[in-house]
Amino acid sequence: MTINSQTTQHQLGHGGEPHQTTNNENPTLTTQQGGPIADDQNSLRAGARGPGLIEDHIMREKIFHFDHERIPERVVHARGFGAHGYFETTESLEDVTSADIFQRKGERTPAFVRFSTVAGSKGSALSLIHI
Dihedrals φ, ψ of 75, to 5°? Predict the structure, then answer.
């Protein structure tokens, strides 16, 4: 089945989904790498109503851009502090772990730890969002 309009031609797929194709008057739709695509509104599926397939690089590209979209009012301003010094093993933990720094009593390892939070101060407008 084909539905025509002035600038776009719509064809229906096996599951009844529309597949859009442009005529020669409009520029070709492309991926971020410049590859031409006819339709970015549908995804590859296993069967007419099956699950989406990981082979669909166009859908993966759209999801990547959606997930990495920067929303200015949601930019995180982390607050916190850091501490540097050393970690000293007070007794051997060889019965619990095979990590080298925990094998010998008295071993000192340089360390830096950062503690931070994204929650605003008490009563801030963002407190309820981050809880």
Answer: -65, 130
